[in-house]
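Dear colleague,

Thank you for sharing your sequence with our group. We've completed the structure prediction you requested, and as agreed, I am returning the results in plain text so they can be pasted directly into your records. Please verify that the sequence below matches your submission; if there's any discrepancy, let me know and we will rerun it promptly.
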Amino acid sequence: MFPENVKPEHKNALIYNVDENVLPSALYSASKAASLNPDRDFDILLCSLSALDIPKPLRDQGITPVHLDLSDEMAPHGFKVGYLPLTTYLRLWLPKTFGDIYERILYIDTDTAVTDTSLSDFTKIDLGPHAIAGVRDLQQWMNIDKPLFEFKNRNMGGGAYLNGGVLLMDTDAFNRRGLLDRILETNRTMGPFHHHDQSLINLTLRHEWAELHPHWNWQGARPYQRLTQTSKPRVLHFVGTAKPYRTDGRQLVFPHDLVADYARFYAEHFPELERPEPPRNHLSDRLRQTFKHRAIGAATRPFMRPLFRRFTSDTQALFD
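Please find the predicted structure tokens below.
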């Protein structure tokens, strides 16, 4: 399955699933991962269902496009699509596809920004008895016991609910336990689903995944800006419809420096695309926004403590 002209350099991989629409944002995140981790012990792959090319300077960073011809294998399962394409489900096939090559895979969504200079730490995290690890969904950050729709609707009660934007997978354990087949059976028997592959993973592997520290999938960059500034997230995940690479200069959601960095990246590598515009708000607007987020931070921080204080460090995973 792995292209003959690609020579893996490491036993672990950071992988994005892409199509033509999300290629620029995925490459931004991958480029950050590469530049911040020059001595990494993982390969960086962009996997797609159709052949895609990437600019040579980014290839020179060690970012490799990989065409996985799996459309015919995936199509019969009738996956829910819509605002997310079939490529979304490609992550479920990564352990099967690369199990003979990589021991661990860190899958990351394309609407992310890697900020970590020690990303190789994912290769050392103890997952206990589990084959997969992830971070709780943002909906449970302020109330870790909150029962979410996916479980509630099926009278399954509460329980930790994983956000599928960052997944750490032990390929051997994943394959030995037949998790892909189990997930596909869930897709066949338990629909309809509120989300996409995230629903399938949560309904199949309830109580069977290790919980990572929120730093590995920081979904609070927009709602908890003050907390984001004072924390040290490893991966920023821009959940929701607002994205820092889709701004018109009038937004107050994302910091100027972040949007400007996306704009520089797009100008250099994708000059044909419309570039995001950093905020050009008046000082009074920025001050008002700053005070607002400080107030939100002060009000929400006490509710966040139960989430964070369970971890001794962000390289610890929690499991039964």
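Summary note from our side: The chain has two domains: 12-215, 225-231+240-308.

Kind regards,
the structure core
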